[in-house]
Amino acid sequence: MIFLCVSIRLQVKGGDEMQHKLLVWRKNSKLTQQEVADVLEIGLSTYRAKETGEREFTCSEMFKISRYAEKTIEELFVG
Hints:
- This protein is globular.
- The two termini are 20 Å apart.
- The chain has helices spanning 2-12, 16-28, 33-40, 44-51, 59-69, 73-77.
- Helix 3 packs across helix 4.
- 71% of the residues lie in helices and 0% in strands.
- It has 79 residues and is mostly helical.
């Protein structure tokens, strides 16, 4: 699991595609940034910074979102 996480982080690092895919999923799911932040147990401003690419998602956060979305990490985070 650690290898998968490191591999994914290398693929998405600095990728605008990742933020776009995540944004599209969130909007199609009719979720607010606050709702996703609550799933991740982080603050709204922290989530916004992650969704816009100012900060990176942790491996744990990527797994939490993928489980919540019932999608693979690749579907949500890999371009």
